[in-house]
Amino acid sequence: MNCPACGNVLEEMTIGDVVVEVCQRGCGGIWFDNYELEKFDEPHESAGEELLDIERDESIVVDRTKRLDCPKCGDIVMMRHFFSVKNEVEVDECPGCGGFWLDAGELGKIRGLFDTEEERHRAAHEYFSEIFGGQLAAIEAEDQAKFNKVRKIANMFRFVCPSYYIPGKQDWGAF
Fold first, then answer.
1. Higher model confidence: residue 29 or residue 161?
2. Residues 6+ apart with CB under 8 A from 91
3. Quick one: 105 and 49 in the same domain?
């Protein structure tokens, strides 16, 4: 595979049981296949330490405004978005294979955002509560009301058709 940012050939690097592709002596970017990034995105995941110091050529300047093609799929343009609700690190994600391309230094920034997955979820919940305010609470209340109504109907059917009366399963009756 070739680097989507600078065109160099990506080198495989084995970290634990995961093989990632890195742009050694190029732009210093890293390619993570689907579900690989989550194994390295928190500071307590010591395996990710090796990926923080990829050897790079300082003379290579990456145009961050350019849309990148997926190095695995080839003809699919990756989506650029923020990695978390803190909106501090932009990553490129392939909509086809689900892989992530991180430019040099982005993994270190991602690892510094949150200490744990729980902290990440809590920050997302706070962010959505702040943005949507009462709308989110109203939707949750409406869903709970619908659930309660469905539960009542299900309980009524429990008396109409008891579980011991299943057609074909009893020795008595017309069925």
1. 29
2. 80, 81, 82, 83, 100, 101, 102, 106, 110
3. yes
